[in-house]
Amino acid sequence: MSLDLAALRAQFPILSRQVDGKPLVYLDNAATTQKPQAVIDALVSYYTECNANVHRGAHALADEATRRYEQARDTVAHFIHAASRQEVIWTSGTTEAINIVANGMAQRLKAGDQVLVTEMEHHANLVTWQQACLRSGAELHIAPIHDNGELDVEAFARLLNQQTRFVSLPHVSNALGTVNPIKDLTAMAKAVGALVLIDGAQGIAHGQVDVQDIGCDFYAFSGHKLFGPTGIGVLWGREALLENWPVWQTGGEMIAKVTYECSTWGSLPNRLEAGTPNIAGAIGMAAAITWFMQLDLNAVQAHEYALIQAATEQAEAFNGLTIIGNAKNKVGVLSFILDGSHPADVGFILDRQGIAIRTGDHCAQPLMRRLGVPGTARASFSIYNSLDEVNALFTALKKAQSMLA
Amino acid sequence: MSLPTTEEIIDDLAFFDDWEQRYQYIIDLGKALPAMSETDKTEERLVRGCQSSVWLKSQSQGEQLHFEVASDAIIVNGLLALVMAAYQDKSAAQILAFDIDGYFHSLDLERHISPTRGNGLRAIVAKIRALAEQH
C-alpha cells in the first residue's frame, strides 16, 4: 500500500491556508507538527462532552474524563511498547520529562561521578545535565561528533567508564537530522552500569519506537511533535526505577498520606504527576497516536526518505549552498547555509514566499560553535509534505540568493 | 544611499507594489547603514536574538542621542536603518514621543518588530527608549 498524500494532507486543515497570498509550505516540522482533524476533534469532544477533573470526582463526567484520560495512557504504553502503563508519566513535554530525570539524578550523583551527553544536544538535554552536575559535583562529559554531524562512536566508547553514572543522548538531532544508533549506544552505556535516557523529541514521529528493544532506562518525548497538542509529553521509565525516583513536584494527586509534619508519596504513575494534569492534552496526544498508528508506517517512512533524498539532491546541486550535517543516516531535517548570507536573511525571504522554515541556533549553541556557523537555515519535513513543496523550497531559495547577492 | 527620513521611507515603501521591491529596498538600506567597527561589537553592546544578533552603541551629544547599530543579518540591518531614521540624533523627548509601532504599522512591517520575532529589533527599541528615559 502506498501513501495517498492528497488524502493525508486533506486531514490537516491548516495546510490549505495561505500566507501573504501564497500557499503555505510548512517546513518547520522539527519545531512542531501540524494537527490532523482527528486530534482537533478529540480536543473539542473532550471539552464539549466530558470536561471534569480526573480521579477525584464522584460524578458521571469525572468518571468519563478519567476513563478517557487513563485510556490515553494505555495508548501511549502500547505505542512505545512499555512493559506496563505505570511506566508512562505525563509531563508538559520532553523538557519537563528530562528535568524529572536530571533533578532526580542530581540528588543521587556525587563528586567523582560522571554524566555523558553528546555534542549534538538540544539545550533541553544539555543545560539540564550541566545543572545537575553543578549541583551534585559530578563531572559532565561531552561525546564529540565528526564534521559530518555523526556521533564519534569510538570517542563515545572511550568516554564510558566505571564512573559513568548516566548517559543522555538524542534519538535524532533536531539541528542536523542525524539518527543515532541508540540501541548500540545504549548497550555500550549499560555495559559500564550507567543509566540511559534517550531524548526522543525528534525521534518519536519518524519511526516505530520500542523502548524495551532499545534497552534504555528512560525515553522522553512531546505530543506536539507527533501531531498532538502542545503542553503534553511523556516520560517513559522502567517501573523499578520510577517507583523510587525522587519526586519532582509535590502537591495534590501525588501523595498517599499527609500530616502537618510529613507526607508519604503515592504509587506510580501519580507520584510523579503532581496537580491537575493536562487532561485534554493527554487525550489529544492519544488521538494523535491512534491516528498515526493507523497509517501504513512503512509507506510513511518510505515517503519521508524520498523527501529528504530529494531535498539533499537538490541542495547538493545548488551552487553556493552548503549542507550542514551530512550523516549517512538522517531523517526529516535539511540544515544549510547560503554562502555569504546570514540564515536569518534567508528565512525572511522564504517567509515572504509562504515557506516556513526555522533559522538560528536551533537551541543548540555549543553545536553551532562546534560547526563554526552562527546558525543554520533548517527545512524540516513531515509525512504530509510533498515533493512539490521540496521544489518550492529551492525555487524560493534561488530568489533569496539573487536578492541577497 | 544616505539615511532617509521616516517620511521619505514611508513614501518610498508605499511606492512599491510588490514585496520583492520592498525587501530589496530594505536590503539596500541595510547595506547603506554605516558599519560599526568590529572592536565596538562587544559583549556588553550585544543584544542576542535567537535568529540574529544586534549591537547598539550610544553616546549623548548635548541634547541629542547618537547611535551606532549593526546586525549580522542584512535585512535586520535594513530594519535597523528604519529605526535609526526615527531615532538618530534626536532628543530624548523626541525619541520617547515617537510612535514606533505606528511607524512600523504604516510601513506594513509590524510583524518584523513584534516581540515574537527573535531578531533583536524589539529589544533594541526598548533599549533606546530606556536610554532616552535616563537621559
Automatic annotation (TrEMBL), chain A:
EC number: 2.8.1.7
Function as written in the Swiss-Prot or TrEMBL entry: Catalyzes the removal of elemental sulfur and selenium atoms from L-cysteine, L-cystine, L-selenocysteine, and L-selenocystine to produce L-alanine.
Species whose genome carries this gene: Bowmanella yangjiangensis
Residue ranges occupied by any Aminotransferase class V domain in the UniProt entry: 25-393
SUPFAM superfamilies tied to this protein: PLP-dependent transferases (SSF53383)
Cofactor(s) the protein requires to work: pyridoxal 5'-phosphate
Domain of life: Bacteria
Family in the record: Belongs to the class-V pyridoxal-phosphate-dependent aminotransferase family. Csd subfamily.
Protein name as catalogued: Cysteine desulfurase
Keyword tags: Pyridoxal phosphate, Transferase
Lineage: Bacteria, Pseudomonadati, Pseudomonadota, Gammaproteobacteria, Alteromonadales
UniProt-listed InterPro entries: Aminotrans_V_dom (IPR000192), Aminotrans_V_PyrdxlP_BS (IPR020578), Cys_dSase_SufS (IPR010970), Cysteine_dSase (IPR016454), PyrdxlP-dep_Trfase (IPR015424), PyrdxlP-dep_Trfase_major (IPR015421), PyrdxlP-dep_Trfase_small (IPR015422)
Any single Pfam family the record assigns to this protein: Aminotran_5
Reactions catalysed: (sulfur carrier)-H + L-cysteine = (sulfur carrier)-SH + L-alanine
UniProtKB/TrEMBL annotation, chain B:
A Pfam family recorded for this sequence: SufE
Coiled coil start-end: none
InterPro entries per the UniProt record, alphabetical: Fe-S_metab-assoc_dom
SUPFAM superfamilies found in the cross-reference section: SufE/NifU (SSF82649)
Domain spans labelled Fe-S metabolism associated: 11-130
Superkingdom of this protein's organism: Bacteria
Similarity comment: Belongs to the SufE family.
PANTHER family: SUFE-LIKE PROTEIN 2, CHLOROPLASTIC (PTHR43597:SF5), SULFUR ACCEPTOR PROTEIN CSDE (PTHR43597)
Name of the featured protein: SufE family protein
